[in-house]
Amino acid sequence: xxxxxxxxxxxxxxxxxxxxxxxxxxxxxxxxxxxxxxxxxxxxxxxxxxxxxxxxxxxxxxxxxxxxxxxxxxxxxxxxxxxxxxxxxxxxxxxxxxxxxxxxxxxxxxxxxxxxxxxxxxxxxxxxxxxxxxxxxxxxxxxxxxxxxxxxxxxxxxxxxxxxxxxxxxxxxxxxxxxxxxxxxxxxxxxxxxxxxxxxxxxxxxxxxxxxxxxxxxxxxxxxxxxxxxxxxxxxxxxxxxxxxxxxxxxxxxxxxxxxxxxxxxxxxxxxxxxxxxxxxxxxxxxxxxxxxxxxxxxxxxxxxxxxxxxxxxxxxxxxxxxxxxxxxxxxxxxxxxxxxxxxxxxxxxxxxxxxxxxxxxxxxxxxxxxxxxxxxxxxxxxxxxxxxxxxxxxxxxxxxxxxxxxxxxxxxxxxxxxxxxxxxxxxxxxxxxxxxxxxxxxxxxxxxxxxxxxxxxxxxxxxxxxxxxxxxxxxxxxxxxxxxxxxxxxxxxxxxxxxxxxxxxxxxxxxxxxxxxxxxxxxxxxxxxxxxxxxxxxxxxxxxxxxxxxxxxxxxxxxxxxxxxxxxxxxxxxxxxx
Length: 579
What we know:
- By secondary structure, the chain is of the alpha/beta class.
- The chain is 42% helix and 14% strand.
- Helix 21 links the parallel strand 15 and strand 16.
- The protein starts with 11 loop residues before the first helix and ends with a helix.
């Protein structure tokens, strides 16, 4: 678990994260469960606030909100006014930093980490791995051979992705750096490059390219930004720093006439650039970050578009530059016209506080109106998802009545009645047919029994796809990026079945999922399987994840015609056969 930034003025999400961390720290220390729960509840309260947190502190109104007493209000006030909290700092100092890393291992919560620390004195991932290999967990109460094996597997996953960051985490940090540097009078052009520009789901660092007549001055300003934790290296044309969040930022500075070549080169990918240089060589060019040369003479290019044109190619969008057929398609002029943000007309897979969302139906609908959607598909959890307060049949009827009532009032938007139905172990959907038939659409998702063999899991999902009430499969592989691998499933067979049955496979836009993986996009298109870019929103803020989903859909070669929620309300109603 990453520790939150402490800034002079902390927004509500940072406050909520810190309160959640305090709850974890208290649990690790074995504090009163009621105190732990108090900080957890306060975190959720702050997360859902609609008012400005600084105003609430100034007016001393924090305690008027449910779950925030005098003590917690004091912690929040300190964070906002002083940028730090004595209680938070003291708790962090009282425990080894490695315990936080241990919490990143799938299946290890605060209680288990505390037991490992208290009984076996394990205080880091390295010590935990050694203990597992020495079989020291076998006789520890609450663990055993199966748990030890899973922990070892989780450590392998953790180590594989250590030092990597989810796309939005890095992207929004990069935007802040760009906003600061573009105000510098010496900066002529500036762009995010590297894997971020290509919309990779995981990135190791941030690459930024600048053109300037005074690179040294720009580098001086870069390493002195307030966001800088430490300077890794500083040079005339390249400098590297770590932000307070821990992510590394590399800035390169070039002459303005070199900018297009450098942008193409540093955007990558390595595989794309290798293939492109090979093509350039066949056409008599030498290509690198400084230019496109014939002999010693550079070919003038003012943009990336010019570079690709000189090589006889259509412009290849950054998202496609992975050497997965994009150069061949650009040579033939058959590159897809990628989906854009403006194409999205509505969203499906939206939760409310009737199950595990943190906002009411009315609040979620208002947020959708503000985003300009024509429609929204509400899909709370079904009854088997007890942990998520899944809807019982009587709750479904109640929600449908409320939706009918709201639809009569709405002028510019329509609410569609849906459900995220658990796909049970045998592949059947939650609820009996009379309840399933009452929905406009049904998303089928797997939330349990993840450890089935591939053959059985594929059969389970295949049976769900054959159910006449199912509209689409939610998060088809169940993965959580940086959290857990997906369950074992034959994705190709899943796509084939979806094609045969005329069903949809979701593109889950939550950045922790981005599931189905973009690498399957071309096969989806080949088999003419529709997808739907779904935010899987559990809050008003979560609705905006559809924007991230568009980025990952572009990376998957998807066009407007490949996506359900680019259709108009009329087209969607016809597709879903809603009267």
